[in-house]
Amino acid sequence: MTTENNKSNIIEISGLNKWYGEFQALKNINLNIKEGEIIVVCGPSGSGKSTLIRCVNFLEKFQEGEIIVNGIQLTDDAQKIRSIRSEVSMVFQHFNLFPHLSIIDNLTLAPIWVHNEGKEEAREKALKLLDRVGIKDQAEKYPNQLSGGQQQRVAIARALCTLPKIMLFDEPTSALDPEMISEVLDVMVELAKEGITMICVTHEMGFARKVAQRIIFMDEGQIVEENDPETFFHHPESDRLKQFLDQILTH
Amino acid sequence: MAVYEQQELRKPPISQVGIVRWLRVNLFSSRVNIGLTLAALYMLYIIIPPMLDWMIFSANFNFGEFSFLGFEFGEVMATNTNCGRTAACWPFIYEKLDMFVYGFYPRDLVWRVNTVFAMTAMLFVIVRLVRNYKYSAKVLLTTFVVFPIVSFYLIGGGVFGLEEVKTHQWGGLTLTLVIASVGILVSFPIGILLALGRQSNLRVINFFSTIYIEFIRAVPLITILFMASFVLPLFFTGGMDFDKLLRALIAITLFQAAYFAEVVRGGLQAIPTGQYEAADAIGLNYVQKNALIILPQALKISIPNLVGSSISLFKDTTLVLIIGLMDMLAMVNMTANDINWLGRETEGFVFVTMTMWIFLYSMSRYSKKLEVRFSTDHKN
């Protein structure tokens, strides 16, 4: 833990409040994340976990509070938002691949158009990433020709293509058939070893136990408890977390 | 507990296949269906034979004498008097074909119009040829920019020693095609911008796009044509009297843009929010997001409706005759007023109908092909 303490915060969230109309989705969130840290966010549905990480790359606007990502404070300024988004990649629950582009074109889109890389260079890099997630031979196919697990691995490769400092995972395995979950988790475990900062919203407690350095439990829009995996699973403090763990770990 | 053997595949029973089944299911499935089938057959029986008789069997095809490989064919060309009144007199169309196609375009210059027709046909060939070529996008873009300009100067003249042909001399099928293609091609990009404007978060743009679309869609084309033709010139009194065809083209373009906008908006709404979010998340800006991610998908979905709307416009171009432009339909009355061919409107209308049908049906077929070609389902 000592080495980690020396690292600087890459994400600083303070006093974050968000409302959807009358409904308060996030309540006074304070969270600092260090460079290279792997965080798992869990909690019952509707607890605001997805909303929280979607605030980090400004897919959701928030009304109060401050988010500083990689030294840049999030505001409405389109230029700033784009420069943050080029450092922060996101993997979605429903993959959100571009169905009209081939796999390779899905990957090279951002490098070519946002990071002004050459076509050949981007393509080479993309093929390497596809190789890493194990689907190099599908490069010329289209998203709808792949299975759910393969599509999500493509989505991860697409997110990695811009060499982000931070990866956000928004329930990456929730829309997958059970037999495809492990192939995606395997890729994420590999990633976790490489020192990229990761925030994962997930219900995969096995994954959380294995790779997370800190687990955050959210309920009703606020952070209820945060701890290292060992304490989190074996010595939960709040009643709400005990109840939640009971519900998900009994089966 | 038990274990079962795998069953072999069998052919379906005979009542499930073949023409007998098709007839039974589609034409004779119930009492009502049988009644409708018989009624429809009877209707066809009354309509088809007399129509074929009028158009073909009793019709006059004496186009005059011609020789082929040294053999002489035909007889003296029929005239209005000896052509008969009970069936079609096609020599009328044959003699007036130039009027139907070129209107009052100077006859010694029609090669220029024909060149444009030939170039249009070439366009389809080019689009096919470069499909898999590396620089196909650049080639197509250049073609689609150069083609209208060259066509305009070829038909209109006035440059490079080409004699000028004033727009009031343009007519017939040529004029119909000019109006329809300009109307469709120019209004398309405007329609896309209006659709995006109506979806925009910027209130002012959103407001004006919506007002424009709703206003135009609430007014018939004929009114807009009248406005453009007779009312607008009242506002521009001094020397601003611009070309009648140009006014009609502007009116039609503005009209069609509103319709395209609604069609494209329908397509935009079918795109899942996840696509917008993914495009945002990888850092694309507004223009890139729409040009690379959203529009390619939205336009693909909209192809059937875009073509449907284009077909409507193509037919609506015939309305320009009320502001004095001599399109193909206007030629019917024009030619049937010829003292030598009095009272041959029916032949003219049938001919124009068939010509229109050929163009519109081709458009419809082409849209089917486009749908298949741009399909991204790629399901195996």
What features would you highlight for this structure?
heterodimer, A: 251 residues, alpha/beta, 4-stranded antiparallel β-sheet, 10 helices, 39% helix, B: 380 residues, mainly alpha, MetI-like fold, 2 domains, 2 strands
- List low-confidence stretches of chain B: none
CATH architecture heading of the largest domain in chain B: Orthogonal Bundle
What is the fold-level CATH name, i.e. the topology of the largest domain in chain B? MetI-like fold
Which strand order do you get reading across the main beta sheet of chain B? Answer: 1-2
Rg value of chain B: 27 Å
Tertiary shape of chain A: globular
Could you say which structural class the secondary elements and strand pairing of chain B correspond to? mainly alpha
Number of helices of chain B: 13
Low-pLDDT regions of chain A: none
Integer-rounded radius of gyration of chain A: 18 Å
The count of β-strands of chain A is: 10
Task: Note down, in words, how this protein is organized.
The complex is a heterodimer of chains A (251) and B (380). In chain A, helix 4 (103-113) crosses helix 5 (119-132) and helix 4 runs parallel beside helix 6 (148-160). The mean pLDDT of chain A is 89. Helices cover 39% and strands 25% of the residues of chain A. Chain A has a six-stranded mixed β-sheet with strand order 6-7-8-3-9-10, sandwiched between helices. In chain A, strand 4 and strand 5 form a beta hairpin. Chain A has 251 residues and is of the alpha/beta class. Chain B has 380 residues and is mostly helical. Chain B has two domains: 105-165, no CATH class; 170-374, MetI-like fold (Orthogonal Bundle). Chain B has a two-stranded antiparallel sheet with strand order 1-2. The two termini of chain B are 37 Å apart. The mean pLDDT of chain B is 85. The A-B interface holds A 57, 59, 78, 82, 85-86, 88-90, 92, 94, 96-100, 109-110, 113-114, 141-142, 144-145, 158-159, 162 and B 272, 274-275, 277-285, 288, 292-293, 296-297, 300, 376-380.
